[in-house]
C-alpha cells in the first residue's frame, strides 16, 4: 500500500470533519505504515497502537478511525495514538497531554 496515497486520501476525508494529522510527519507516516501493515495482516485497518484479536467484530471499535477518536480529540486534542489531532493541538494552542486508553478492559 502506498503510504503517501493513504495519507492524501485520509487527509481529504478527515480534515473537513475537523480531524488533522499530527504535524510530526515522521510519526504520522509511521502510524499510517502500521495501519497499512494491519490492513494486509487482518484485512482491516486495525489501530496501530492496540493489539487486535484477529476477529473483525471483536475489533470493530478499534478499526481506524476508532470509536474513541472523537471523544479523545474533543477532550485532549489528540487521539490515543496521536495520529489524529485538532487544529489547536497542531498549533500548540492547547497542551499536549497523555491520552488515556478509553477502550474498556473487557474489550482489550
Report what the structure shows.
By secondary structure, the protein is mainly α. It is built from four helices and two strands, in the order H-E-H-H-E-H. 39% of the residues lie in helices and 4% in strands. A two-stranded antiparallel sheet has the order 1-2. The relative contact order is 0.16.
Keywords:
39% helix, mainly alpha, 108 residues
In DSSP terms (H or I, runs of 4 or more residues), the helix count works out at 4
Biggest sheet features: 2 strands, antiparallel
Q: Can you count the beta strands?
A: 2
Q: What is the CA-CA span between the terminal residues?
A: 27 Å
What structural category characterises the helix and strand content? Answer: mainly alpha
CA radius of gyration = 13 Å
Mean pLDDT: 96
In brief, what are we looking at here?
With 108 residues, this protein is mainly alpha-helical.
